[in-house]
Design goal:
- The protein is mainly α and about 60 residues long.
- Helix content is about 35%, strand content about 0%.
Amino acid sequence: MPNQPKTQHRSVRLSDEDWEDLKTRSGDRSAVIKELVGWYLRRPGAELPERPPVPADNTDQT
């Protein structure tokens, strides 16, 4: 079957603001989510993804 993905589609619930900010700051939401899950589950070789710089208009630096 053509164009069949190797993994099953999954859904997560995030606010629209978080979803759009993740796209803007990462460029590839899927890659960031996969890296976070691998790190969280302590997969061999997995590392915590690098965080993007704090936007100039954001005073929250947590």
